[in-house]
């Protein structure tokens, strides 16, 4: 995985570490993703004064899957965790800050920058390096948009998603998401994350991708 993607993975992890840490002080220091309009000082006080921070993008919630939408999708797995993706997406093994896994990319280019073409993508890491589940209440107090969702085979699943500017080009709208699932059978926590197109296209992918996850 190139340095740009590794860095982005770390940025998203730092932003969502707030739900994985034990104390309010540690939660505040963890910080937010770049879209958050919070200074470091404001973030330190965020646990007590969440109004100091603007929300991180526009909230995205999980909708109902479209019947038959995934009939032509490809079925795959990462370390025993099964999921489905559109048939024309391509994947490769990666090793990132959250552990080993697979990165999948759409044929469509989302942004082109000095590092080349960046595609819409989904990164899957199982087991995720930190096996504690995030806490939606803590994330929401800091301006993130998190909720518990239903995922087949999971004892618990948390989705954090918002529509915001793409990390490589803020003028390009994108749905940033992270999905954490804990397997009901193995108790292993897996992380799915990535960038999807803004609007109806990205919402469609998210609504149909998430219910296909079988941890």
Quick one: how many beta strands? 10
Quaternary structure annotation: single chain
Distance between the termini: 24 Å
Percent of residues in beta strands: 35-45%
In DSSP terms (H or I, runs of 4 or more residues), the helix count works out at: 5
Low-confidence stretches: 9-15, 17-53
Q: Please state the overall shape, judged from the principal axes of the Cα atoms.
A: globular
Verbal overview:
- 42% of the residues are buried.
- The protein has helices at residues 3-16, 24-30, 40-44, 136-141, 199-212, and strands spanning 58-59, 74-78, 81-85, 90-96, 99-113, 116-125, 146-148, 154-166, 169-183, 189-197.
- It has 215 residues and is an alpha+beta fold.
- It contains 5 helices and 10 strands.
- The chain is globular and about 40 Å long.
Secondary structure elements and their pairing?
Layout: H1 3-16, H2 24-30, H3 40-44, E1 58-59, E2 74-78, E3 81-85, E4 90-96, E5 99-113, E6 116-125, H4 136-141, E7 146-148, E8 154-166, E9 169-183, E10 189-197, H5 199-212
Antiparallel strand pairs: 1-8, 2-3, 4-5, 5-6, 6-10, 7-8, 8-9, 9-10
Features:
215 residues, alpha+beta, eight-stranded antiparallel beta sheet, 5 helices, 21% helix
Structure, briefly:
The protein is α+β, with helices and mostly antiparallel strands. The chain has helices at 3-16, 24-30, 40-44, 136-141, 199-212; strands at 58-59, 74-78, 81-85, 90-96, 99-113, 116-125, 146-148, 154-166, 169-183, 189-197. Strand 7 and strand 8 form a beta hairpin.
């Amino acid at each position: 995985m190139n340095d740009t993607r590794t860095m982005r993975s770390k940025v998203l992890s730092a932003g969502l570490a707030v739900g994985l840490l034990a104390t309010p002080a540690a939660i505040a220091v963890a910080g937010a993703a770049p879209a958050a309009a919070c200074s470091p000082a404001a973030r330190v006080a965020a646990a007590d004064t969440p109004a100091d921070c603007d929300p991180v993008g526009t909230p995205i919630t999980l909708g109902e899957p479209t019947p038959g939408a995934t009939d032509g999708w490809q079925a795959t797995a990462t370390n025993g965790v099964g999921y489905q993706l559109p048939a024309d997406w391509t994947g490769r093994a990666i090793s990132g800050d959250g552990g080993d896994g697979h990165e999948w990319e759409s044929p469509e280019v989302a942004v082109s920058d000095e590092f080349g073409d960046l595609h819409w993508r989904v990164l899957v890491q199982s087991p995720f390096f930190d096996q504690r589940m995030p806490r939606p209440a803590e994330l929401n107090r800091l301006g993130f948009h998190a909720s518990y969702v239903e995922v087949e085979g999971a004892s618990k699943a948390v989705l954090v998603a918002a529509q915001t500017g793409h990390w490589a080009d803020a003028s390009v709208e994108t749905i940033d998401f992270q999905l954490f699932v804990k397997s009901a059978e193995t108790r292993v926590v897996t992380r799915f994350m990535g960038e999807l197109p803004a609007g109806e296209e990205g919402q469609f992918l998210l609504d149909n991708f998430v219910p296909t996850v079988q941890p």
